[in-house]
């Protein structure tokens, strides 16, 4: 530290960086009072600091976030604890479904529609079963800045299962439009995660979710409806704005 | 950077919680990318380094000692990885195909992108240990103590390198008419 003493240069740097101790302040002020070199050094250092502070922060390249997440394997997350058995039993539904209903999931791993229907659903699902089929009929990938994951459609021998594995730090609403699908809501299995609410209304299933997003929506064919080639529409909304929409073809 | 929050997220990651992983990546992706870019001067390399940093962090998660700050640990990995990347590409074309704009140009009011390039030009002319200290202080906004922890060097050395680096940068920017 050439023309300045090392001590004064250190004090000036600490001052410019905002780290000077109050106990050193008087010493620096005294040096600045008597030394033009000290004043010039302080002025130059401040100017340099201001220039560097004006340099804008850079945005990481698009897709880097997804690349990072895709490349990292964490220790095995828990498997979904509730699975459907290989046979999906017919389930009868009350008028409540058609009329629309909202059910708070809370800590339940398994979601009944009401007491009567619960009996049927319990008959249709088992805890710690063999798992869903490993193969899927179709899938959707979600790779947004705030939401990533996959949605798989699996055939259960007539009935279908939409298996969601979604990562999102913020609350999102995930909707399944069953309108023209020839399917109706058949049940819901939730890993002990972030699902807070599920709404079944007018051919739509909407799950409000935050945190862990591993769940399965079970769908059954509507009696008497042709199950030719069809699409299942899935959408994701955040803060009431739709941020994702996709469809999975099946049947035919 | 809240170390308690980081620790909570790390604990959840250890249990396989990918939401926590997403939150940690959200928190650190941008600052790590920016630090890597300022050390390397190349966007593609900085992106690669950022990805490798996270990969290594999660491969070594069991080695992380919670007594130390997570951000110091991840920055140390980032700086080491950036230096390794720099060494691998030292003999290759180093800058992206960009024309750095001289402030000596008569029409010399720099926009922020041009300012970024001129400053990056100056950083790349610094020797590596000076550049790293400049990046951590000015772009990662670390204290002397944080830089000392990340680089495993005494605070006195941090201050000395910062002084030397700044003197060189002042000379460069003065020559470009910016000071």
Describe the structure.
The complex is a heterodimer of chains A (252) and B (179). By secondary structure, chain A is α+β, with helices and mostly antiparallel strands. Chain A has helices spanning 6-17, 22-34, 36-53, 64-71, 95-99, 115-124; strands spanning 82-84, 101-104, 110-111, 125-127, 138-143, 147-155, 160-177, 183-190, 195-201, 204-221, 230-238, 241-250. In chain A, a hairpin with a 2-residue loop joins strand 11 and strand 12 (241-250). Chain A has 6 helices and 12 strands. Chain A is rod-shaped, with a radius of gyration of 30 Å. The model of chain A is unreliable at 77-130 (pLDDT under 50). In chain A, helix 1 (6-17) crosses helix 2, helix 1 (6-17) packs parallel to helix 3 (36-53) and helix 2 crosses helix 3. In chain A, strands 2, 3, 5, 6, 7, 8, 9, 10, 11 and 12 form a 10-stranded antiparallel β-sheet that branches. In chain A, strands 1-4 form a two-stranded antiparallel ribbon. Chain B has 179 residues and is mainly alpha-helical. In chain B, helix 6 (128-139) packs across helix 8. Chain B starts with a helix and ends with a helix. The chains are: A alpha+beta (252), B mainly alpha (179). Chain A binds chain B through residues 1, 9-10, 13, 17, 19, 44-45, 47-49, 51-61, 64-65, 67-69, 71-78, 148, 167-169, 194, 211-213, and chain B through 13-19, 21-23, 25-26, 29-30, 33-34, 37, 43-44, 47, 50-51, 54-55, 58, 112-113, 115-116, 119, 134, 137-139, 143-144, 159, 162-163, 166, 169-170, 173, 178-179.
Any key phrases for this structure?
heterodimer, A: alpha+beta, two-stranded antiparallel ribbon, B: 179 residues, mainly alpha, 8 helices, 70% helix, globular
Topology:
The complex is a heterodimer of chains A (252) and B (179).
Chain A: H1 6-17, H2 22-34, H3 36-53, H4 64-71, E1 82-84, H5 95-99, E2 101-104, E3 110-111, H6 115-124, E4 125-127, E5 138-143, E6 147-155, E7 160-177, E8 183-190, E9 195-201, E10 204-221, E11 230-238, E12 241-250
Chain B: H1 3-14, H2 18-40, H3 43-59, H4 70-88, H5 112-125, H6 128-139, H7 144-151, H8 155-175
